[in-house]
Amino acid sequence: MASGDSLIKLFKAFKENDQVEFTKIAYDIIEDERKKNHYLLADKLYKALFSDDFNTILKSRDFNSKQLPVDKESGFQLMDMKFPKLSLEDIILTSENKQKIDDIICEFEQKDILQTYKLYPKTKILFCGPPGCGKTITAEAIANELQLPLLYTRFDSVISSFLGETSTNLRKVFEFAKEGEWVLFFDEFDSIGKSRSLDSEHGELKRVVNSFLQLMDNFPKDSIIIAATNYETIIDKALWRRFDEIILFGNPNEEAIKNTIKLKLRNYPYKELNIDNHISALEGSSYADIERICLEATKKMILKQECSITDELFTEIIIKEKERKKIIRGIN
Ligand SMILES: Nc1ncnc2c1ncn2[C@@H]1O[C@H](COP(=O)(O)OP(=O)(O)OP(=O)(O)O)[C@@H](O)[C@H]1O
Ligand SMILES: [Mg+2]
């Protein structure tokens, strides 16, 4: 068994939400078990902690010196480390976007070859599109495909109410990320882009944007940076130029609606559901809306102890979802 000290440290790291420390201690515990010839237990613990796919990278990773950065005033962690399992197969993409993403992955996987010709892979990517269209999950899937951890930063958590602290936070995020190979994901990127173009608070925000751009420009090409935004039109043109690739996401068309339903219901029975009957009612919905409808319909079917989702049930849920959206629109 792991020593009492290790367990106390592990629990502390969990309580403090310190993923790096937690992973490091857990890793040490596994190694201890291995040294005691408890191979079976060590392997099971290993599997529980890391997916098989990540074994190789994690083994070579030095966790000792890594502490996720925090905001000085609030003490909040500025970023999160994730090991996504999602595959690109789980995402409905237009063929154009699929091609762009495949190219990003292919170039990155072969960056050594490119470098011998003094060429570099695309590593600065901007995702634009309305809510619920797959920006975040695509960033996760890219990390998974490249077998890299995802460093997740919500832009608004970096923005500090204390003057000057925001640029320091950004620098901390980039400093941390410089030390390894990751997909560095900036979610809600519009929180700065938006404010800048609205010109509400010149000085400080301008500095933030500039320091972000500088940090991004000087960032080593060992990692991929992805920024995601809902407000593509109001992001400053100066920002757009700095990205190697821009991917526009949108709501699903008829075919994509159909494929989304099939994908989301693939593990549940739906032989009494004629998907074609519902396409027009779902036009204009996001992927996330359709996913929610599919999940609701599945739960209802299970609790009613029925053996298939039916057209009637699906229609009922679509109507409810539309009412829910009306309320949300009213609030906003
Ligand atoms: N293209 C897609 N294919 C399959 N599922 C999708 C797709 N887009 C979104 N989803 C589903 O919708 C949910 C929301 O997706 P995601 O978080 O990636 O959206 P987003 O574009 O990042 O939205 P936001 O702008 O609100 O952050 C997820 O649970 C995901 O499974
Ligand atoms: Mg998102």
Q: In angstroms, what separates the terminal alpha carbons? A: 53 Å
What level of helicity do the residues show?
Answer: 40-55%
- The helix-strand sequence is HHHHEHHEHEHHEHHEHEHHHH
What is Rg? 23 Å
Mean pLDDT: 85
By secondary-structure content and strand pairing, the structural class works out as alpha/beta
- The H-level CATH homologous superfamily of the largest domain, spelled out, is P-loop containing nucleotide triphosphate hydrolases
Q: What is the CATH topology of the largest domain?
A: Rossmann fold
| Ligand roster | adenosine-5'-triphosphate, magnesium ion
Q: Architecture of the largest domain in CATH?
A: 3-Layer(aba) Sandwich
- Given as residue ranges, the uncertain stretches (5+ residues, pLDDT < 50) are 53-60
General form: globular
What is the tally of beta strands? 6
For the largest sheet, list the strands in their spatial order: 1-3-4-5-2-6
Number of helices: 16
Q: Report the sheet with the most strands, covering strand number, pairing sense and barrel closure.
A: 6 strands, mixed
